[in-house]
Amino acid sequence: MLRSCSTAVLRHTKQPLLVTTPIFYVNGDPHIGHLYSGLVADAITRWQKVKHPVGGSIMFTTGTDEHGLKVKQSAAAGNMSLNDFCSQNSDKFKLLFNDANISYSDFIRTTEPRHHDTVTHVWKQLVDAGYIKKGKYEGWYSVPDESYLTPNQVQDTGKVDEEGNNIVVSLESGHRVQLMSEENYMFSLSEFKKPLLTWLQQNPDVIQPKARRGEVIDFMENNTGDLSVSRQASKLDWGIPVPNDNTHTIYVWVDALINYLTVSGYPKNNNNNYYN
Known about the structure:
Blueprint: H1 2-11, E1 17-20, E2 24-25, H2 32-51, E3 58-65, H3 69-77, H4 82-99, E4 106-109, H5 113-128, E5 132-142, E6 147-149, E7 154-160, E8 166-170, E9 178-187, H6 193-202, H7 213-222, E10 227-228, E11 230-232, E12 241-242, E13 245-250, H8 252-257, H9 259-262
């Protein structure tokens, strides 16, 4: 999210400005990279307040991403309940930011009831609009990354494991991936391919840094199949259940992305300028 801040800041006059860090996984302790993200976002926020002391409102949000398999595994490894583990590690991020005098407006935790309500609301809207339907996902999945991957995002290492299976890894993370076939809920991203590409062409400055523009365009042109947006609860139950179907859990990255709507007050505050 910090990469997108630079464009927003350049354009900001007296319009509402939302500055965010990523929300951070609680499966480990905070490190210098987390602190750096917070300091940069804090500096952007303070500078905008100096430039525009009257008029435009500025919100700076950060927080912790607390659902998913990695978090569940880390809590089990520490012999802690999930709630206690998440609270303990989330507090570490808060303490770090407070010690560094990082003045955030809101610290969101994805285990909060307000976020559960927002995610559920958005899911229902997408279902009602016909963009989420039950389907079958067949493809690569990385457990450490909690990520679905296309064939273009994986590589066969040419090696085999002890059972004689080919070792295939994610090109981005290097983590091993596995073929998966299961019934999930699918988001119709393919319906948005043409309008998204048109919008990106008409708004060349929205991707920052500009060196990444070609990478994003290439991905959109070659990888816009429908997305799996749930996991079977029998395989992952630490997350927000799919509304009206507790046999599925909403995919952790979908859950996490919606935090930026949660902090804006959506959907209860329908007149909020941050998302209108």
